Model the fold of this input.
Amino acid sequence: MRLFFCAPKAIPLFLLLTRGIVMSKKEVERLLTTGGENKKVKAKYNAIPSKEAFVAAAIEDGYDFTIEELDEVLKESGDDFTTFGNPPARSIWWA
Done:
């Protein structure tokens, strides 16, 4: 759960929520770009078997997004989380 604290000026809740969603999607994009540019990051995340573990590892590495936000970015970009090959690989990485 994300908490939003407002300064004394009233900020409409929908603006705060929209900003939170946009910022989280940017975090997904940041990880996908980093993995596209860095072979070690890509290999680490390709070896993770589930979305739950993938997001948990991302959070440990300083990213801030949910499974739902990951799914939304992947859907919008036409990418698929499925792994293939040996060693496992995903075609989600952006360059």
Q: What stands out?
A: The chain has four helices and no strands. The chain has one domain: 22-95. Residues 22-95 form one domain.
